[in-house]
Amino acid sequence: MKRWVLLVVGVVLALIGVLWTLQGSNIITGSGMSGQRQWFLIGLIALVVGIGLVISQARRKTERS
């Protein structure tokens, strides 16, 4: 059960990371985060951590099978 929770958290974190990165790079406009370098960097960090969680949980699942 814990694997599924971490997998979902990883996917959500990666999606939020993509959104924040696009807002920070001013591709998505209309918010206070648009064009802000700090949100670009925070988004990249969130994206990398999210992808890392997804990959680690996918590997863990296949190792147990």
UniProtKB/TrEMBL annotation:
This is Uncharacterized protein. It comes from Amycolatopsis taiwanensis. The chain crosses the membrane at residues 40-58. Keywords: Membrane, Transmembrane, Transmembrane helix.
